[in-house]
């Protein structure tokens, strides 16, 4: 090409075919880099990242099942407990396994009875592992659907939620606990709540409770949401759905020994063994087993629920007792908080005040941690401490047996998350200074 007088040498190079091709390539690389950053940081890319991670998790679970030895803990006991029911035993106090008597509600019996028959009376462990791998993927899809609706968590966080947790994979496919079953049903119920299908959601919520009682930690938040949307009279039918399902599921046992069934399946005063505790290892065992300590934890739990209900869940300027009124007779509430925030924070308060956390209990709140950490406004510099909190919590749950350091670290992490939830969701002060008056333009008049 002929050189132009006065043109810089870089501009001349850019006009050559090779220079233009290099420029287009550099622009494409910059665009790809920008999109990659967006895919990692912007919640609108959550469906794409979720699809990739679910595919990867299918392979990871298959690898874990085939390469990591299965460890027997409770599966054989589960099968022995439901085998008694299959053989005709209806007295709940007579259902037991190697680890002791059956202590779960009736929904557990029916679900694991299905697994009992599907796996040849529990003998086909490998098939049970594949079934739980399918449950893991279903649970992940339900969780991702919730996160897609909330659009608060940057997608890069989900890599830590999926690929970085050895303990969660172990709970699902190497231990075959009933906790993942209850949580998967619970996440299905939350998806129904997000779709405003409250009756079906309450039915599934009650089914999850019938598998394991830890789901009751979500109950205070659910009660608040029902009162908020339907008022006292409107939420009574929804509560009746929950209660009726419990009666129907427990009917075969209630007809034979109602006291035995209720005392075994809903035993809130059951003592836990100190050797398995993850969160209270730094206490002396006599304090851990002390009923006064248990009462103090219960009071702390109730106080936390009360404070969050009054100052963080309740977004209206009216008294909280107005929740008992018909929603049509109330002032409109601010849409500042969501269904997910109320339910996840309710459960988290219960976990923080739990009398004991065993290793399989990690699944009770593991998939809610990204939301709890990122539901509040996050600056660029605050991302790293939040990721660090996730890592420390994971390390605490992977320390076996638990130590004084690991249990103290877990409480510190929980305390930091609670402080963030409290101060990060504080109501925004309302300015009482009237805005300057101005005449609406023609465009604004049309928009009104």
TrEMBL record:
The chain crosses the membrane at residues 102-118, 130-147, 176-194, 200-227, 239-256, 292-313, 333-351. GO terms for molecular function: dol-P-Man:Man(5)GlcNAc(2)-PP-Dol alpha-1,3-mannosyltransferase activity. It catalyses: an alpha-D-Man-(1->2)-alpha-D-Man-(1->2)-alpha-D-Man-(1->3)-[alpha-D-Man-(1->6)]-beta-D-Man-(1->4)-beta-D-GlcNAc-(1->4)-alpha-D-GlcNAc-diphospho-di-trans,poly-cis-dolichol + a di-trans,poly-cis-dolichyl beta-D-mannosyl phosphate = an alpha-D-Man-(1->2)-alpha-D-Man-(1->2)-alpha-D-Man-(1->3)-[alpha-D-Man-(1->3)-alpha-D-Man-(1->6)]-beta-D-Man-(1->4)-beta-D-GlcNAc-(1->4)-alpha-D-GlcNAc-diphospho-di-trans,poly-cis-dolichol + a di-trans,poly-cis-dolichyl phosphate + H(+). It comes from the Eukaryota. It is found in: Endoplasmic reticulum membrane. InterPro entries: Glycosyltransferase_ALG3. Its main location: endoplasmic reticulum. Keywords: Endoplasmic reticulum, Glycosyltransferase, Membrane, Transferase, Transmembrane, Transmembrane helix. Coiled coil: none annotated. Pathway: Protein modification; protein glycosylation. Its EC number is 2.4.1.258. Residues 429-448 are annotated as: Disordered. It holds the Pfam family ALG3. Dol-P-Man:Man(5)GlcNAc(2)-PP-Dol alpha-1,3-mannosyltransferase that operates in the biosynthetic pathway of dolichol-linked oligosaccharides, the glycan precursors employed in protein asparagine (N)-glycosylation. The assembly of dolichol-linked oligosaccharides begins on the cytosolic side of the endoplasmic reticulum membrane and finishes in its lumen. The sequential addition of sugars to dolichol pyrophosphate produces dolichol-linked oligosaccharides containing fourteen sugars, including two GlcNAcs, nine mannoses and three glucoses. This is Dol-P-Man:Man(5)GlcNAc(2)-PP-Dol alpha-1,3-mannosyltransferase. It comes from Chloropsis hardwickii. The gene is Alg3.
